[in-house]
Amino acid sequence: MFDLRSLRLEPGDARRVDLDVELDPIELGGQRYVVGDGPVPITLDVQAAVDGLHLRLRLRTGVRGPCYRCTEPAEVRVAVDDRQYHAAVPDPEAEEDTVSPHVRGGRLDVAAWAREAVVLALPAKILCTPDCGGLCPHCGERLVEGAAHDCLPVVGDPRWQALERLRE
Known about the structure:
- The protein is mainly beta.
- It has one domain (2-130).
- Helix content is 11%, strand content 37%.
- Strands 2, 3, 4, 5, 6 and 7 form a 6-stranded antiparallel sheet that branches. Strands 1-9-8 form a 3-stranded antiparallel sheet, with no helix packed on it.
- The chain is elongated.
């Protein structure tokens, strides 16, 4: 937690703060992914306005875990540049985005915000290589381009044989 009040900002003032934050692992699809190799360097920009705070969070880090297709170790690099606004006196009838969910009592939960931003920056599928072939659906062997794979084809369901004859 970072105490925003410690910056003592007046409207129009801005400060840049460099932090090292330990981010909890992320669980996606039942798989665990580790963020960074220890504390992640984060740059936090805070600018005071008359009616609230403009917040900006930037970081670059790696995310490691199992490949989506073959479960081998995979790592992707993500870059985050996220902005939020937090109204000094939230209007209950205003839109939700006028209050940062990570600010409570003048304190900013930098780790929660960074973790959420990393999840949103991740690709749809974390792969060990862009052309990962995954696993053979019949034998479970990892499909590697150029490697011989002589898995026997699965015999079809006999109930479909009559339809298969129509294809001939």
